[in-house]
Design goal:
The chain has a domain at 74-252: Nucleoside phosphorylase domain (Rossmann fold, 3-Layer(aba) Sandwich), CATH 3.40.50. Helix content is 36%, strand content 27%. It has helices at residues 16-19, 52-64, 123-144, 147-152, 175-184, 195-205, 223-233, 235-252; strands spanning 2-7, 21-28, 31-38, 41-47, 70-79, 89-97, 118-119, 160-167, 188-192, 209-217. A 5-stranded mixed β-barrel has the order 5-9-8-6-10, surrounded by 5 helices. Helix 5 (175-184) links the parallel strand 8 (160-167) and strand 9 (188-192). Helix 3 (123-144) packs across helix 8. It starts with a strand and ends in a 12-residue tail after the last helix. It binds S-adenosyl-L-homocysteine. The site of S-adenosyl-L-homocysteine has 19 residues, from strand 5, strand 9, strand 10 and helix 7.
Length: 264
């Protein structure tokens, strides 16, 4: 296995490149790809920058140029539902591009000519990720996130959620817009700007992927300051410890090869 690890922003991946054994750096398409060993897993880390096109370009390059066999997106997101709180973790069960609308030619949200509105990440990899996230919250969280930060962000007992993640080229910071989105997309748990693009690319190339997001804000009028604070002081801790746990688990018990041959 060769794991591609994408985040949009530096703070969402800080520490991973430093933890890499034998790193080698290559610049391609205006991005820095760093290949090496992460907890004995062959990995390539990269920052996509923000938005669906940036993420699609990066995912494609990871597969076509760097030969990754699996992709993990790790980052932050706005809460998509009232049951999801800042500091919680979301592992995508399904992803949709909430700003895709070619109606009336195609149903709203359908990616034209694919027949699909939703794209599914890989179930076994996502299950491993849920386990890593739960272990992080149970075993690492109190040490990784200081008491001051826990209090400042009101992080009492963060939880792991599974559900629908909606991506679009918009930073959502408007309660009414979020409510409308929530009404149109049942099961919504998080809003962000890259995951569904990665899921579409991985679906088309037949590469298993998984998307994990720490909730940085409530996608309402306070979203921008909340997002900035969370990303600065907490996001990297989540990404680092969860990725470490995931890599160790994958080393101990490798994923079974997929039996289908999609995308070949
Ligand atoms: N002003 C910021 C822009 C960040 S965009 C800057 O200059 O860095 C927000 C990033 O975090 C995106 O990569 C997106 O995937 C995620 N995100 C977090 N909260 C979000 C929200 N409420 N709406 C959309 N994306 C969000």
């Amino acid at each position: 296995m060769r794991l591609g690890i994408i985040s949009a922003l530096h703070e969402e991946q800080a520490g991973l490149v430093e933890a890499m054994r034998g790193p080698s750096r290559l610049i391609h398409g205006m991005r820095d790809y760093v290949a090496g060993q992460l907890w004995e897993i062959d990995a390539v880390c990269v920052l996509s920058r923000i938005g669906k096109v940036a993420a699609a370009m990066t995912a494609t390059t990871l597969v076509e140029k760097f030969g990754v066999t699996h992709i993990l997106f790790t980052g932050v997101a706005g809460a998509g539902d009232k049951t999801v709180q800042v500091g919680d973790i979301v592992v995508a069960e399904s992803l949709v591009q909430h700003d895709m609308d070619a109606s009336p030619l195609f149903p709203r949200f359908e990616v034209p000519l694919t027949g699909q509105t939703h794209f599914q990440p890989d179930a076994p990899l996502s299950m491993r990720l849920v386990g890593a996230a739960q272990d992080f919250l149970e075993l690492d969280f109190l040490d990784a996130v200081g008491e001051g930060e826990r209090r400042a962000f009101g992080l009492a007992r963060p939880r792991v959620h599974r559900g629908l993640v909606a991506s679009g080229d918009q930073f959502v910071n408007d309660r009414l817009r979020l409510e409308a989105m929530n009404g149109a997309l049942p099961g919504l748990v998080a809003v962000e700007m890259e995951g569904a693009a990665v899921a579409q690319v991985c679906h088309e190339l037949g590469v298993p992927c998984a998307v994990i997001r720490a909730i940085s804000d409530n996608a309402n009028e306070n979203a921008a300051p909340d997002f900035m604070r969370f990303v600065k002081s907490i996001a990297a801790q989540y990404a680092f410890h969860i990725t470490r746990r995931l890599c160790r688990d994958l080393k101990e018990a490798p994923l079974q090869p997929r039996s289908d041959s999609a995308g070949t």
